[in-house]
Specification:
This protein is an alpha/beta fold and 325 residues long. The chain folds into two domains: 163 residues, Bordetella uptake gene, domain 1 (D-Maltodextrin-Binding Protein, domain 2, 3-Layer(aba) Sandwich); 99 residues, D-Maltodextrin-Binding Protein, domain 2 (3-Layer(aba) Sandwich). The protein contains eleven helices and ten strands. Strands 1, 2, 3, 4, 5, 6, 7, 8, 9 and 10 form a ten-stranded mixed β-sheet that branches. The protein is globular, with a radius of gyration of 24 Å.
Length: 325
């Protein structure tokens, strides 16, 4: 009997030795370069956060995470490309409240579904917006702006980086909730909006706080309110919109998303490495110095926040009848 048992053990060992390399190959994610699609041009929040995540994830995994800027139609081209990519873990997307939560309300026929077509890996950082006034506007607070707009409908103007941009949607929601009429002046990008704000040709501009900070600190524009749930450490003297009497808050979060149906082992590895990255002191320092609030939401908590904002903001955008260009 002993020889027969030994033969069985030998056969089992041989079968296991043949099987293990296949299992190891399947589980060795990532074993080649991963592309990280940024649906905006180089520079700005999408790109800077995307490059930070790609750099750190590459170092943690030992594989290259390569940023690929795929632009066009706002954030549509790059986001659609990621949604339709092979769900193998080797194409990821930098997602924000812009392409995930605002677009579903801005477009009647969106070529992707933010909740069905993507699986959140994690959310890394959130940025508030700062409402700025031209430096010579004789209104010192948001409450004064609202009172003036109520008494003078359509007389005040606010700039945006274009129809459907965050700089358009957020103030439009603010004026709607405050019950006042402020005239929208869309520009082709934030740079042109800043030129007219600083030149005194437009009254107000609501931009991401890190971008607004240099102009406020230099005295070129005056900060009236910030959009987050708490005051921004960059401008601790500036009240929130809610403190100013309007029940509105918005922070533009940024994170990493994978196409739906990405293999579980790849998602688990990505989320584990994302959590390590988000906990790094140098990563958090970099985000804070840039005016952000580190988040480190991974998996289900990230999904819950995305779903909340998709449902809330897409509904509000449709109520406001805002359309993208």
């Amino acid at each position: 009997m002993q020889p027969r048992i030994n033969r069985r053990r030998a056969l089992a060992a041989a079968a296991l030795s043949l099987t293990l390399p296949g299992l190891q190959a399947q589980g060795a994610y990532p074993n080649r370069a991963v592309r990280v699609i940024v649906p905006q041009p180089p520079g700005g929040g999408f790109d800077s956060v995307g490059r930070l995540m790609a750099d750190r994830l590459g170092k943690l995994t030992g594989q290259s995470f390569v940023v690929e800027n795929r632009t066009g139609s706002g954030t549509l081209v790059g986001t659609e490309l990621a949604a339709k990519a092979a769900a193998d873990g080797y194409t990821l997307l930098v997602g924000s409240i812009s392409n995930m939560a605002l677009n579903p309300g801005l477009y009647a026929s969106l070529p992707y579904d933010s909740l069905r077509d993507f699986e959140p890996v994690g959310l890394l950082v959130a940025y508030s917006y700062t409402l700025m006034a031209r430096k010579d506007l004789p209104l010192r607070t948001l409450a004064e702006v609202i009172a003036h707009a109520r008494a003078n409908p359509g007389k005040l103007t606010y700039a945006s980086a274009g129809n459907g941009s965050g700089q358009h949607v957020l103030p439009a929601a603010l004026w709607h909730l405050a019950g006042v009429d402020v005239t929208h002046v869309p520009y082709r990008g934030a740079q042109a909006a800043y030129q007219d704000l600083l030149g005194g040709r437009v009254d107000l501009f609501f931009d991401l706080s890190p971008t607004a900070r240099p102009q406020v600190d230099a005295g070129n524009a005056r900060a009236l309110a910030v959009s987050g749930p708490a005051r921004n450490p960059m401008h601790p003297q500036v009240p929130t919109v809610q403190e100013s009497g309007v029940a509105l808050e918005l922070e533009s979060w940024f994170g990493l998303f994978a196409p739906a149906k990405t293999p579980r082992d790849a998602l688990e590895r990505l989320r584990a490495e994302f959590a390590k990255m988000a906990a790094m002191a140098d990563v958090q320092d970099s985000l804070v110095k840039a005016g952000g609030k580190p988040m480190a939401l991974v998996g289900e908590p990230a999904r819950a926040l995305v779903q909340r904002d998709v449902e809330h903001w897409s509904r509000l955008v449709r109520t406001l009848a805002i359309k993208a260009e």
